[in-house]
Amino acid sequence: MLTHKGQFFTLEYLFSVIIFLAVIVLFIGLNSTTSSIINTTDSHKSIHNSFNNFLDIFCLSKGFPENWEYLDLNSIESIGIVKNNYIIDQNKYLKFLDLNSQYEEVKEKIGLGKYELYIVFKDLDNHVLGKWGIVPDNNVEKIKTERYFIYDNNIIVANIRVWQR
Amino acid sequence: MKKGFIVLLDVLVALLVSFLLFAIISQYVFNVYTFDNYKYVNIIGYETNVLTVLEKSNLFYDALENNTTNNIRHFLNRTNKNVCAELTVYDSSDNLLFTVRKQNCQLTDSYNVMYRSFIYNNNFYLAKLVAWYK
Asked: Bridge-partner residues for A163, per DSSP?
């Protein structure tokens, strides 16, 4: 008959096993949470960076070449719809709306190849002047912003939506 | 029989404490990179855009010429619903000429200010736009 308990049954050992398991569980949980945060942060950073680059080029530049509106899509490097900061060039604007039929190709030209895009141009009384892109589902997480332009001496609003495919 | 290194209680406690510290520190580090940075960029973009459009659409001149801020107010009220804004215009002697605030907006502690100068009738004016999130 044993007079002393073995090491396996000592309270101290059981306590240490519990702590060890707690550490393992904490490690796994933390690792999973951290990975998830890193992935989400990277994904958000990536879409925000693309979105901001797109806004800069689209809203503040004439595009490249500057006469892109008269060229074939294959010859266009980037698309901007203004002739000066936020003052819309009518020919560029109309050509851009016209290019909706080549949605995928245009997205590549404006640096949003991985994402989807939907733009609605409205006047200040909310009358729709033009639409571009595909309509997003309601349940999709989107980045939304508005930009204001001058078009034909009037202020117009562009509602811009970008989301992950 | 002596216990092995791996089952030493103080080592396990030390490990637990280390992980807890790591968890607390990592939470702090990750919280630094919130999307407030993007919000800040967005509010600057909003202000730049609004001030540029107000100037280039001649709404500043319209307000000074006709002594009315109705068109500016109409435009500001139409801008992004999530953003509040207050526009103030001063003359070259720093006299306040007019102030327009978006409707249903109360100033908070966290806001960004942007200035834009413009010339009208050979006089210098300064527009100050304060913007913040609702």
From this structure: A116, A142
Contacts of A54 in chain B (CB under 8 A): none
User: Do the beta carbons of residue B71 and residue B57 sit within 8 Å?
Assistant: no
Instruction: With 0.80 as the threshold, say if the pTM is over it.
Output: no
Q: At A13, phi and psi to the nearest 5?
A: -65, -45
Per-residue pLDDT of chain A (165 residues; tens, 9 = 90+): 555 555 555 777 777 778 888 888 888 888 888 888 888 778 888 888 888 889 889 999 999 999 999 999 999 999 999 998 899 999 999 999 999 999 999 998 888 888 999 999 999 999 999 999 999 998 888 888 899 999 999 999 999 999 987
ipTM of predicted assembly, 2 dp = 0.74
Q: Transcribe A134-162 into DSSP letters.
A: -PPPTTS-EEEEEEEEEETTEEEEEEEEE
Of B52, B59, B80, the CB nearest to A146: B80
A/B interface, count of CB pairs below 8 Å: 78
Cβ–Cβ below 8 Å for B23 and A26: yes
Q: Which of B1, B16, B49 sits opposite A148 (nearest CB)?
A: B49
